[in-house]
Specification:
The complex is a heterodimer of chains A (about 270) and B (about 650). Chain A is of the alpha+beta class and about 270 residues long. In chain A, about 20% of the residues lie in helices and about 15% in strands. A four-stranded mixed sheet of chain A has the order 6-1-8-7. Chain A has a two-stranded antiparallel sheet with strand order 2-3. In chain A, strands 4-5 form a two-stranded antiparallel sheet. The radius of gyration of chain A is 19 Å and the shape is globular. Chain B has about 650 residues and is an alpha/beta fold. Chain B folds into three domains: about 30 residues; about 475 residues, Rossmann fold (3-Layer(aba) Sandwich), CATH 3.40.50.12440; about 130 residues, Barwin-like endoglucanases (Beta Barrel), CATH 2.40.40. In chain B, about 30% of the residues lie in helices and about 20% in strands. In chain B, helix 5 runs parallel beside helix 16.
Chain lengths: ~270, ~650
């Protein structure tokens, strides 16, 4: 499949050498996008005694983490051991694996900016897209989102909550893109030529280490343009040819090697 | 009309056939199946004007300078405050969840006396009576390190003739004990994380749980050289940024630092302190690389390499964590290196008459125990961290959420959440310049709460009526502009305090730096992660998704980490269930093999195993504070958790 090219290509460059894996991006993302804290009990379930508890966040298979931080290890024993942290949003692939498998066109890549959409009302929850995504960036709502009593009054206006039975994923905080374009129009500027920093995601904004840079990969005036072309930049599983719009950078070779499932022992795949 | 048998049968058959053919029944059944599965509760979003209202968020230990994001006046999220240098637009994972905590059903809804709801008038009467009866036997434990509310509490103590002010154990306190206590300095130590070209973190988990985490990280993000050496028993998250990790046991940090001093002294560095000669001869004879290697296990060439990097830098800095001795050794090393990157910040003027100075507030050693007839606890959770150290006749706990401490207190007084009250932060520890930031309430309190300052000013005559007036007085005293501060700017004072007359504490350090550890089988390396929680702040609602299974297992077990050599020695494998015993307690845990831990050491996360709180913190993992051992540091007379050991038994 040919990569769909856009004039604007929103992308991220994540400097792994600057990430401490503190989790601020993960918390900031959940708050921005109304990902509910996972609660075990459902106050609306009047037959609680007859049903099993809902899953909670200690079960990482069922946890919704649009932004997920992985811990990397160089695999060496003490004292040569080294760690690094890899934040993983949706890669917004140039040739997404999730889009062609969707039977109901709930996920598309056709908007200027190159963000892979996820249309919740269309999604039938078949999860083909989850199976197709090699980055595990997609999550299924096994349970209805529920906020503990009173916490629901402070919902974010940026993303509608999703019911159970649909798949969701990082949207590069899409409503912020819309807001930035609106603001540009109000200010009489060109919404198709936003300055660097006019539109950034919640995770980019919150990171105290400034490990995440966000911008238009096609625009030489945006910092990510140079960063994504840096000597140490790489993408995850690049050999699959999905052309992710999320780049990583690290001066440590072992980190870069893990980005493409490099097999040190000369494995067969 | 009579119905014949035949007609009845005809009608029944007709009705049955009719029902089979009509869609009504099937549609109804279909509807039932759909409607019973419908979302029982449809979340509705509020739309309207969106704002970012600046304030100070006191969820984390140092406090984050944030903007509370509101939509149509309702707070929903938090982001950093780009106008404040302490934030630079970023915030920590705890403060990022601040609004969810504000709206948490775990909030305390009204004043409670021995478990029964009472009115504020009654609470006022009770406290006034207890204050009268207690005389000077009043004590305060504060979980706030930098707020002016401490001035109100300490002024109350002063008025009662007491000086029993205690802060929860914190890095600022240890640094102060070393700097003003042992070395005769004044002011508060800070570090230039932005301008230093070689930073040695000697035990300071600076990028995750030490000092003002966000301010440190924001400053370091601007550092162009980015040379960071991390020394400690565990590769914490900070180690991910370090160019080099030097495995050093916590109790050996002071000796390790003096081992580096050896090389620095050998290179001919000196400082004009009165006891320099004594310091030099102490280090050159007792802390030679060979001796330090024997005592701490850190290779001499490793120390030589670190010393070389520090000596080669033009603006190096050593940032300590851990014991008082380790702090004093690091300050001495910084003085020897002649660095400009260790700053000495002046203290801001007080806003309340009769209040104690910052340094005096830090003098109380909470680990040695608190005994009082009347104890006030302000936004701290000592019943969780050090239950055995508290002996109070009557405890009054101020907090906004239920904790172990409020559950154990006689009188619980609910205070507004950070975003519902006036809040400020003066000189949070670790920052390289003196700063003052404040914030006005963002949201209206929705519960029957009262700011702690207002309550105290209501029961005691301290010359002011409300906490808002105290803040006004503080702003005036520090020379700030109220409007600018409320808009989110920080007051920055570049002045630095004098270091003349400072000694190198040679006599004390010579004894205190000798590593002493417990008698257990392995060393215990406790660590803190903000997503897990800190001493005073339990896990926040959205944090569990960000907590890795390396801290809490899927079955809620506490996870402890050790390297494969240690595991082999102990005869345990990955995921083995073990029991750790140390201090006066025990913890059950699951083993995780992680090679970034010093051999013969087990690393355990603090902040888990709450018994009171919401579902996000309660019953997850176990409380590692139970198995820490408090020991008295030789010669410094300070209490420390460094040197804690545990025995590990398989279950």
């Amino acid at each position: 499949m040919q990569t769909k090219e856009f004039k604007i290509k929103w992308g991220m460059v994540i400097d792994i050498d600057k990430c401490t894996g503190c989790g601020a991006c993960m918390v900031g993302c959940q708050v921005e996008n109304n990902v509910a804290p996972m609660t075990k009990t459902d106050p609306y379930n009047y037959v609680q005694a007859l049903t099993t508890d809902r899953s909670d966040a200690s079960d990482k298979l069922l946890t919704l983490t649009w932004m997920n931080v992985y811990e990397l290890s160089n695999g060496k024993a003490f004292p040569e051991h080294e760690t690094a942290y890899l934040p993983r949003p949706c890669m917004q692939c140039g040739t997404p694996a999730c889009v062609p498998v969707c039977p109901v066109v709930a996920t598309e890549k056709n908007e200027e900016g190159g963000i892979v959409s996820q249309v919740y009302p269309r999604c039938i929850g078949c999860r083909y897209c989850m199976a197709a995504c090699p980055y595990h960036a997609r999550y299924f709502n096994w349970w209805d989102p529920l906020w503990p009593e009173g916490m629901d009054k402070g919902l974010s206006p940026s993303a509608s909550p999703r019911p159970r039975g649909v798949v969701e994923k990082c949207s590069f905080c899409h409503s912020r893109y819309l807001d930035a374009k609106d603001k540009a129009r109000q200010d009489g500027e060109d919404p198709m030529n936003l300055p660097d920093g006019a539109y950034v995601t919640a995770c980019t904004e919150i990171c105290p280490n400034k490990a995440i840079s966000f911008g238009d990969l096609n625009n030489p005036e945006h910092a990510v343009y140079e960063l994504s072309r840096g000597k140490h930049s790489f993408r995850l599983l690049e050999k699959l040819g999905l052309a992710p719009q999320v780049y990583y950078t690290s001066e440590r070779e072992w980190v870069r090697m893990q980005g493409d499932n490099y097999n040190a022992d000369g494995g067969s795949h | 009309m009579s119905v014949a048998r035949r007609a009845f049968i005809q009608m029944s058959v007709g009705a049955t056939v009719g029902i089979l053919f009509t869609p009504t029944v099937w549609t109804a059944l279909d509807d039932v199946s759909i409607w019973t599965q419908n979302w029982p509760w449809i979340p509705t979003l509020k739309y309207g004007e969106m704002k970012g209202v600046p304030t100070v968020s006191k969820m984390c230990e140092s406090g984050c300078c944030v903007q509370v994001r509101t939509v149509a006046g309702e707070a929903y999220g938090v982001k950093g405050n780009p106008d404040n240098p302490l934030s630079g637009g970023a915030c920590c994972p705890q403060c990022a969840n601040g609004v969810q905590n504000m709206n948490n059903p775990n909030r305390i809804k009204s004043p409670m006396l021995n478990g029964e709801a009472i009115s504020w008038e009654k609470a006022n009467e009770v406290v006034a009576e207890k204050l009268e009866a207690a005389g000077s036997k009043v004590a305060v434990i504060s979980g706030d390190q930098s707020g002016t509310v401490n001035e109100v509490f300490s002024a109350l103590l002063t008025s009662k003739g007491s000086d029993a002010f205690y802060m929860m154990p914190c890095d600022m306190q240890i640094a102060d004990k070393a700097w003003t206590g042992l070395m005769g300095g004044s002011g508060q130590i800070g570090y230039d994380f932005e301008g230093s070209d070689a930073i040695l973190l000697a035990g300071a988990d600076a990028m995750e749980s030490w000092g003002s985490v966000v301010a440190t990280r924001t400053a370091y993000a601007k550092n162009e050289v980015r040379k960071l050496i991390f020394a400690g028993p565990l590769q914490t998250k900070t180690a991910a940024l370090a160019s080099k990790w030097v495995p050093v046991p916590a109790e050996g940090m002071a000796a390790f630092t003096l081992g580096i001093c050896y090389y620095v002294l050998q290179a001919g560095k000196s400082v004009g302190a009165s006891d320099f000669d004594q310091f030099k001869s102490m280090v050159m004879s007792n802390f030679t690389p060979a001796k330090v290697e024997a005592a701490t296990g850190v290779k001499a060439d490793m120390m030589a390499d670190v010393a070389k990097q520090l000596l080669a830098a033009s603006n190096p800095v050593v940032v300590p964590g851990g014991s008082v001795a380790a702090n004093a050794a690091a300050f001495a090393l910084n003085l020897l290196l002649g660095t400009g990157a260790m700053k000495v910040l002046p203290e801001f003027a007080k806003g309340v008459e009769g209040a104690m100075s910052r340094s005096d507030m830090l003098k109380g050693d909470i680990l040695q125990g608190v005994t009082a007839d009347l104890l006030f606890v302000y936004e701290a959770n000592p019943a969780y961290v050090l239950p055995e150290q508290l002996k109070a006749g009557f405890t009054v706990a101020f907090d906004c959420v239920n904790t172990e401490t409020t559950a154990a207190a006689d009188l619980v007084l609910p205070i507004p959440h950070s975003y519902e009250r006036y809040e400020d932060t003066a000189n949070p520890y670790g920052v390289g310049v003196a700063t003052y930031s404040m914030g006005a309430p963002v949201s209206k309190p929705y519960l029957d709460v009262m700011p702690a300052g207002d309550f105290i000013l209501g029961v005691a005559d301290l010359g002011v009526e409300t906490f808002a007036e105290v803040i006004e007085a503080k702003v005036e005293a520090v020379g700030g502009d109220m409007d600018e501060l409320i808009e989110g700017a920080a007051l920055v004072n570049e002045a630095s305090a004098s270091v003349s007359g400072v000694t190198l504490a040679a006599t004390v350090l010579g004894k205190a730096a000798v590593p002493v550890k417990g008698t257990g089988a392995v060393s215990l390396a406790p660590y803190t992660q903000l997503v897990v929680g800190s001493a005073n702040q339990a896990t926040t609602p959205n944090a569990p998704a960000a907590i890795s299974n390396n801290q809490v297992a899927i079955d809620y077990s506490l996870v402890v980490m050790m390297n494969s050599a240690t595991a082999k020695k102990l005869g345990v494998a990955d995921e083995a269930k073990v029991k750790l015993s140390g201090g006066n307690g025990e913890c059950e845990a699951q083993v995780k093999i992680f090679e970034g831990v010093l051999t013969d050491t087990v690393a355990a996360p603090l902040g888990l195993g709450h018994t009171v709180g919401d579902e996000f913190s309660k019953g997850r993992g176990d409380n590692v504070y139970k198995i820490l051992t408090v020991s008295s540091e030789a010669a410094t007379s300070a209490s420390t958790w460094a040197g804690s050991t545990v025995n590990v038994a398989k279950i």
